[in-house]
Amino acid sequence: MRGLKGKNVLVTGGASGIGEATAVRFLEEGCAVCVLDSSAKARTRVARDLPELSGVIDADVSSMEQVHRAFAEAVDCMGSVDVLINNAGISIRHGFLDITPAEWDNVLDVNLKGVFHIAQTAARHMMNKGSGVILNTASTAGTTGYPHYADYSASKGGVIGLTKAMALELAPIVRVNAISPGYVLTPMQRAEYTDAMLDAVNSKIPMRRHAKPAEIAALFAFLASEDAAFATGHVYVMDGAETTGGLCSQWAHE
Known about the structure:
The chain is α/β, with parallel strands linked by helices. Helix content is 47%, strand content 15%. Helix 1 (17-28) packs across helix 8 (213-224), helix 3 (64-78) packs parallel to helix 4 and helix 4 runs parallel beside helix 5 (150-170).
């Protein structure tokens, strides 16, 4: 992609799944990359597997204090942050009637408050230096209801609204977009779904499979590049046409 080589990139939730694949892609593009993750086990593994990373940083994005410290560490490692991949997130599969207040708070604290914390911190840094790109990970669950994920859907709907508001306020200095993946075969997804459940989902997706994390990473790379210099304020869906046709997409294969 044009204009990525030499950029400094921070990826939250960067030690597994979409975040790790995105870190790999930006390294391939010639960027300096720091990953931020709250899992000690995942940080140890990614530091071993990707020794070319500029830094592997411990932080819980739901804490603004930890975010400020972690962002300062990323700046120390790379000199600045040109691109933020705001990807850290969690999900809990449970029925709406069974969600506890603690579970609701946990999901919203990471998936929405955490996105705000790191986005605001990065935006202040980027506005001061005169340029930057912030890319948030949303989800098709933020615009389409999914059973057993009410809190997750609420959090991702918030990310979508936040993305659009940020883009208006930060233009023309900082570009802000989001990617809304559909089903992606990540460790988080694999932990919540049996093989039979995965097969059932795949049968309803016109592409007949989950996305690969590297495919989402490729879209992040494009949106961060100069090839997307006029792209801001939008949410880009990558879901294999899952949400495009609803029942019509299923009928087409019968």
